[in-house]
Model the fold of this input.
Amino acid sequence: MPDVMTRVLVIYTGGTIGMTLKDGKLVPTPDALVKALHKMPMLCDEEYTKVHLKDYNTLALPLTKDNKRIVYTVLEYNPLLDSSNISPDDWAKIGKDIEKNYDNFEGFVILHGTDTMAYTASALSFMCEHLCKPIIVTGSQVPIYQLRNDGRDNLQGAVLIAGQFDIPEVCLYFYNQLFRGNRVTKVNAESFDAFTSPNLDPLAIAEADIIINKHIVRPPDHTAKFHVSTQLNRNVGLLRLFPGITTATVKAFLQPPMKGVVLETYGCGNAPDNRPELLAALKMATDSGVIIMNVTQCLKGTVSDSYATGEALKKAGLIAGGDMTQEAALSKLSYVLAKGIDLSVKRELMGKNLRGEMSEVQKTKLSLSDGRFIQVIARCLSINDKEKLEAIREALTPPLACAAARIGDIEALKDTNFSLSDYDGRTPLHIAACEGHLKVVEYLLDHGVTISVTDRYGATPLGNAVRFRHKEVVRLLRKAGAQLFTDELDKAGTELCSLTASGDLEGLKMWELAGADLNQPGYNGQTPLELAHDLGKKEVRAFLKQLKKPK
Ligand code: ASP
Done:
């Protein structure tokens, strides 16, 4: 007996995967797929299925490498559809079937035609609220009955993932890749490699092993019971800009009952800003409550605020759709517009990431102590292990804290252990003192950093501030009790003589401010005053002399 058994519901809506040729054309064929699956060893463990599973539509996959048994039940729709005929009513039916069977299965696979698969995957991603189980949409480019086809691999991969992994998202599986459903678009009508997710890496790659990109997978939403929201507003549309599009066309498109439009703009979200009548038409529509999303026509990239031509659309009341696909933007509009909430809240939701459909813009800077900071690094390094993350944090914090001090970034420094030093024993206080960042020095002193710490060259922050001539920093450090280190003082005589020789009064005053004795002899035993006398540096001599007086 296997160690574990999991159950997957396969909802078969139609699509090429189960089509056969009729009068030379591919058409969906009822009652044929399950029969064929029973004869496919990679999709049916014949013996186990015969002995243990009484229902003809329930089949068992052969045991997995780690002895897991996945049993799947096919729920065939009537009629089966070419996905060009799919409508929001079908999405609602699929959603409700998942909801009905939610507690009886560990995962769900939806067999679907490829033509509108990205729309269905996007729509379901929004409709499924508080999802904690995988829902994987798949299909094929070539019917499963043909000698060379992609249906067998796609179906097996989808069932294997749905039955084994905690990926609580609506996904699309195709050609060995598991994508987030609302990130994909169909890009090839012929190749097995039909889909792409231009702005997000796959959630998993299924080659010899199935490798999950855990850092991308969204967490389950346990905040409430799973629910499928079948209310969708159908008064939505996609409008693609092109040079010369007439204002009349745009106006006609925006007429009631239109409620939401995805405007496919150029590049980073640009439209002509030399067409006031066109912009006025857009503005009139948004003023009257139509939500218009600005989404790029480009396959890859995001709507940004780099160009004046994009700014014009913002002024016309359009909402930036970030890096959403057109399919995701359209179904999100349909879903959000159907909610019984104020228009302002709908607009707000449209600009927000709801189901991982858009990359969030990093508005606030990351703080070094912030968990997100280390997550971002971990993500880049693909690390998931807690201990390793801590080790990374420990290793990275000191140099990064110093880097933050260098650019005067107090926000990034907040709550960090600022007394940690880098490989040269330099602390953020050293760096801030060198750079003359008075505010950072103030912040660090207020937060109790060690003042009289020396780096590997024996330098203190005060010594650094003197060397880089940041008078106010020297004053502040002195006020806080900072003192020059013996090593620095020992070398001071020679340094003072050198300043004297070059008549550098300002440099000498800096040392005085730091509390150094300016009468110290240099390497040859001569004091700065004697040297000033010998070299005829009158001003320096006068300064040094008056220093001597009180003694
Ligand atoms: N026309 C088919 C459909 O979308 C294409 C396919 O499944 O690949 O249903």
